[in-house]
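re: that chain from earlier
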Amino acid sequence: MSHHAKIQISVLMAVRNGATYLRDALDGLCQQTHPADEIVVVDDASDDDTSCILQSYTSQLPLVLLHNEERLGLTLSLLKGWGVARGDYIARMDADDISYPRRFEHQMTWMRRHPDAGVCGTWARIIGQSKGRIRTPVNMQDIHASILWECPFVHSSVMFRRSVMAEAGLTYDPEFCVAQDLELWSRLVLSGVVCGNVSRSLVAYRMHSENITSTRQQERRQASLAIYRHMLDVYSQEPVSDDELELHLRIVHNRLQDNEAEIRSAYDWFERAVSMAETMGQRSLWLMYIRKVWFAVCYRNCVERNSALVARYMRMPRYDFLGKYRMLLLLALGKKALLSPT
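^ sequence. v structure.
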């Protein structure tokens, strides 16, 4: 590529001791039908074979290699790479995930169809220790409705339009060493920047023991509480208490305690959330995600824990918090009863 050629797509990757899966990630970038113009990789002071693997791909990929002498962490490494990237579009990529061959092609098509958009993500296939799919909300309205209940983007699937992000003053917050993606999505939603997801699994998201080490779980919890507090303070007309915030986090992570007071509190919190949604004219959309979350709670308690507590609260006088999921739950309970020994 000529030194003066226009840079359209910059890939942004930060890696720390990623030798185990790095080749898979780089091979995926080699196979793109719409290749990236540069691939900015920040090596966060790795002490394994990461550097050697990166060097071995310099003849196959337009790599821009940056090395941290001391470990900076993911957020600061991404900010460092963002500052170096020259593309009009910045595509995130994790060193343990894989971009399927048509990822950038589909995302660029989506971006051309939405010229005001700042972010485009995709669905993902889960590989590694778990299997499955991640189907994120597709349109902007659903992303806004889902943000309080689930992460609306797969981080390693997103593509940013640099000009829109710069105009909105959006990038990673250096204060968030963990959950930096959810924190960015929360400000993205509150800012009103146009965003969406391509409804195709265009990345492989790898689940393994080192995704989030147990030593950082408490950090992630505190970061999540801060993010949800900020959003709820914007959405709610009344202050949100610390107990309500903790309850919301347990609901989101499907970690409700198995007692009647907790289930009752969850229902009360759902009713308050619906009231917030009604104030903003978003009742039907919010209910859709509340039902999804409540089904997960009911399934965990009724089917996995064999608890009868949730069954008493499957329907409230004002709202049906199961909706179309009611039949799925009843089928699961019926199947379990048939399989249980008499």
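The chain has two domains: 9-207, 236-339.
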